[in-house]
Amino acid sequence: FIQGEVLAPLRQVPTMAILAPAELAKEDYLYDGEKNRYKPFKQLFRAGWINAERFTDLNRRFLLQGQLFQKVLASKPVGPCEMYLSLRPRITVKQYIRPTIAGAMLSVGTGLLYNILGGPEAYRQVECQIEVELLGPGGRHITTYISNRKSAERAVADRPWQLGPLVSYAYTKAMEDIANQISVDNDMLMRALTADMASKGVVPLASSAVRINVNTPKGVVIRRQNTLISGQIVGMNGPATLSWYLNGSKGGNVALKDTTAESVKEFSLRVPFSKGIEKVTLALHSQAAGGAVSELARTEMAYLCIPRDTMPLPEVRQRWAVIIGVSDYANGGSRFPDLKYAARDAEAFRQFVLSPRSGGFDEDRVLCLLDEKATNKNIRHALFEFLAKAGKDDLVVIFFSGHGMPQAGGENFFMLCHDTHPDRLASTAFPMWDIDTALRRFIKARRVVVFADACHAGVIASQ
Q1: Burial readout 66-93 (b: 16 or more C-beta within 10 A, e: otherwise)
Q2: What does DSSP assign to residue 22?
Q3: d(Cα 268, Cα 401) in Å, to the nearest integer?
């Protein structure tokens, strides 16, 4: 049931992956009509074809077909290889069974209800929970991706040709979600690889009193082939020469600029990257009076250059917008007084997205919450439910204009809703980090633009 290039639109992770055998657990739940809930039951799941070997093969086929990684291997490659990740999948297949009316009638007075359900048809629903633990080359835990998907409920038996489609649907949807999480987490994966290479001495770290601190670029994945690298030399006590190398070939010397601190110098250079993995070396040398040259400090960075034009995104399918503007606060007062223009700005933005200039937002996909409508409950519905309808090829725009405030004595920051109470921020305001939660866990769209016109709005970007 895995058909077509299901992962084709995703960004490829530029490493090979070692896929461990799947760990499989099966659970059954039987509907209790008296208590109106499902309860665990241990003797219903009879489909022998649902086994760990089967899911191990499905996992490998899924990743190979989608080309999410450069290669997918079953064991560690032979020979030296630093650039690979290990995936350990754990899969739990849950079957929910609710007897049909006919099945229930046959069991009246026999006490054999649990025994006959595996044979006659029953209403069945399958839930597939997948956890994929990600390990670096050194076996270090990096993160765990989790997804949980359900099939529709159908009247079927546990025969392969009937139960199979339910299991396949739940599994495929959960794996698509896992693959999407891995794809958009590319920068973090490369940072993890760089850390492992550093621990093995492939990317040595300076240990002398003189340090070369690289400030930009922040990440490891580079989108431009002509990239600016900048930073500082700390601990210099005399004249020195900074040289840079690309993949072992010297590129030239770098000019050092004075700062207000005598022992700190600044530097910047542009490096012409090629597509793929590139290594940049910065070496600081001093020359003694007799002509002898000594190395004061050295640092090496591994970058992955993926130019933007090599990763075209498909056309936008649909456009969605949530627009929030709060000028009037029910409990504001002196702590956060009413604003003049927040709601007006939001309304102007709503008119813009509905105009032809925006590219065409349909009115039923634009949710605007102004003043008394911008409650904590409505904002949560907008971000976690309304925008969850957007597909992965859609565009999502979030606009917020209003007060932003930190919690007194803490490190928590909130967007203030119309009904926010100043003494109960945690329960009546909207935490800024929940925007990140919505983007990562609920909103499937790969194109999301967030406008936040509020104090402390920068916290959103740091999540």
Answers
A1: bebbeebeeeeeeeeebbbbbbbbbbeb
A2: P
A3: 37
Confidence (pLDDT) at 62: 86
Q: Which residues lie across from 122 on neighbouring strands?
A: 99, 156
3-state secondary structure of 142: strand
> What's the confidence (pLDDT) of residue 112?
39
Paired tokens of 30: 């039987």
Strands (E), 139-210: 141-150, 154-156
Identify the pLDDT of residue 197: 56
Q: What is the pLDDT of residue 433?
A: 78
Q: Which helix (H) or strand (E) holds 345?
A: helix 342-353
b/e per residue 305-321 (b: at least 16 CB within 10 A): bbeeeeeeeeeeebbbb
Is the distance from CB of 119 to CB of 158 less than 8 angstroms?
Answer: no
Measured CA distances, 390 to 150, 320, 336 (Å): 19, 7, 34
The helix or strand, by DSSP H or E, that contains position 66, with its residue range, turns out to be: helix 52-66
> pTM for the whole thing?
0.45
Distance in angstroms (rounded) separating the CA atoms of residues 300 and 279: 7
Q: Would you state the structure tokens that stand for residue 39, as one six-digit string? A: 């309860």
- Closest residue by Cα to residue 113 from 34, 25, 26, 51: 34
HSE-CB of 127 using CA atoms within 13 angstroms: 10
Spatial distance between the Cα atoms of 205 and 211, rounded to a whole number of angstroms: 9
**Residue for token pair 């840079």:** 244
